[in-house]
User: Which sequence fits this backbone?
């Protein structure tokens, strides 16, 4: 019993000693801890306020609203905060640290050359106004709307909803085509009508059928067009030009238009003239319907 009491007393005294040492350490370093907490809180609040103000300023100015500028401001604020606390809290001279970082920076840059190239490419794209969020672009066969330009990549959303992440360095070395939104939304379906067809009746009938079957897929501000293009041995050739609404599938629009007008008794041969875009999209739609069945 005496040994047990002695062990408990020794343990209690050890705990008391540890608590006393912890309290002494806190008392000795409390100014540094308080200073570190104040700087961190100030940096956090400042980063939030600056980010919010920067986003609002970008919305009002001609500079595109891209996250790369907001992220750069955040990094700069935290770098300043770290520089402020290095000497008072950790006893490290900032110039010594920066010198060491400069010496090792060359080796690090070799390993991060792709990331650095992407970041520089992002700044070039944004400051030159070559690419901005909201632009419709075609890049290496990818067509969609630019959503954002980040540190490493540009985010493009295709019409089917897929997000494509394209490295910024690639955009500076490949063909970039900016599309007019009106032209990008258009689909063309060629047809051949019977010889000696009443063109006014043909146009009215086609537009009526298209409006009934594909109204929900078309842009309400851009009505469809029936445009006659010439003659062939089979009859009068023409194109149906329709405009898909934002984020609507062009393949679905072509399918809806084709189904609605294919029963017309004024046609000789649908898709008699060759629009490659229409044929490819129709083939893809037919394949998808076949696999679902």
Assistant:
């Amino acid at each position: 019993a005496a040994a047990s009491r002695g062990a408990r007393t020794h343990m209690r005294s050890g705990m008391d000693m540890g608590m006393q040492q912890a309290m002494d350490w806190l008392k000795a370093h409390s100014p540094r801890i308080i200073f570190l907490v104040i700087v961190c809180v100030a940096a956090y609040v400042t980063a939030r306020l600056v980010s919010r103000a920067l986003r609002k300023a970008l919305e009002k100015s001609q500079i595109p609203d891209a996250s790369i500028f907001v992220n750069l401001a955040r990094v700069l604020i935290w770098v300043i905060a770290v520089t402020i606390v290095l000497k008072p809290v950790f006893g490290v001279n900032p110039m010594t640290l920066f010198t060491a970082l400069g010496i090792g920076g060359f080796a690090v840059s070799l390993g991060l050359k792709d990331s650095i190239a992407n970041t520089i490419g992002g700044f070039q794209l944004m400051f030159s106004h070559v690419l901005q969020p909201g632009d419709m672009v075609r890049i290496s066969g990818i067509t969609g709307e630019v959503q954002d330009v980040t540190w490493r990549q540009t985010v493009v959303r295709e019409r089917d909803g897929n997000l494509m992440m394209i490295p910024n360095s690639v955009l500076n070395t490949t063909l970039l085509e900016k599309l007019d939104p009106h032209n990008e939304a258009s689909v063309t379906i060629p047809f051949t009508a019977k010889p000696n067809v009443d063109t006014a009746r043909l146009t009215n009938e086609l537009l009526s059928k298209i409006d009934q079957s594909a109204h929900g897929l078309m842009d309400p501000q851009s009505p469809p067009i029936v445009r006659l293009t010439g003659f062939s041995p089979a009859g009068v050739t023409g194109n149906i030009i329709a405009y898909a609404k934002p984020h609507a599938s062009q393949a679905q629009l072509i399918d809806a238009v084709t189904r609605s007008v294919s029963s017309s008794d004024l046609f000789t041969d649908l898709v008699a003239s060759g629009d490659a875009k229409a044929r490819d999209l129709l083939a893809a739609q037919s394949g998808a319907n076949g696999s679902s069945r």
